[in-house]
Write a structure and sequence with these properties.
By secondary structure, this protein is an alpha+beta fold. It is 45% helix and 19% strand. It has 9 helices and 9 strands. It has helices at residues 94-109, 113-125, 133-141, 148-155, 159-170, 174-192, 197-203, 209-220, 224-231, and strands at 8-12, 19-21, 26-33, 36-39, 44-47, 51-55, 61-64, 70-76, 88-91. The strands form 2 sheets. Strands 1-8-3-6-9 form a 5-stranded antiparallel sheet. The chain has a 4-stranded antiparallel sheet with strand order 2-7-4-5, with no helix packed on it. Residues 132-230 form the HTH araC/xylS-type domain. This is HTH-type transcriptional activator Btr. GO terms for molecular function: DNA-binding transcription factor activity; sequence-specific DNA binding.
Length: 233
Amino acid sequence: MGNLNHLICEKRSYQKEFASHHHEFGQFLFPLEGSLDIKTKWQEIKLNSEYCFYLPPKLEHDYRSMDRNEFLILDIPLPYLPEHTEHMHVQLDNQWSAIRYLLLEEATGQDNPSALANLVHYVVSKLQTANPASIDYIHNHFKEPITLDTLAKLEHYHPVYYSSWFKKRTGKSVKNYITELRLNESKSLLVSTSWSMSRISEEVGFENSSSFTRWFRNSEGVAPQKYRILNNG
């Protein structure tokens, strides 16, 4: 998609079929009705009304909605953004709920561009511009055993607090986040390579193929061998 030269705050709906694209601007999505399936390289989420999601510029993503839906969308041109931003899956606490309310007012009014610009500057200030060290660590080492203590130390947090912080940051527990990365990597290898189950299981951190097969079936609802057949047809 092309460049965006001005702020856009409006309601949109999405189709049932997956579409894929990226854009040259940042985008916030606030569900008003229904949910949205979003897939990026590292994430698969179902965005519902308890969360909002930020897509940074140039992030390739797939999206669809399987139900009746309406979303509040805020498209933010590059001049409003820091040099680097990352995707954010944020639970709507009181502060974010208030932001959604104010943006919704702007979307229905659209008669005060300066008010929208001021609000966007505030929203952008809440974007964290770099991956925390522990999340980078997870992405680089998710095929290996990772302890909560290791991750907490990287952020200088107590493990109990880190778990809460991580859930607010990503919308997932540490365990579920790592499981999703390993599962996505497994699915990618099953479809894009002809590797044996033993090699794939070793690649994603399992000691043997039987434990990998059991884990994959429990996570995906189908054996990895069958997943490969179904997705290579």
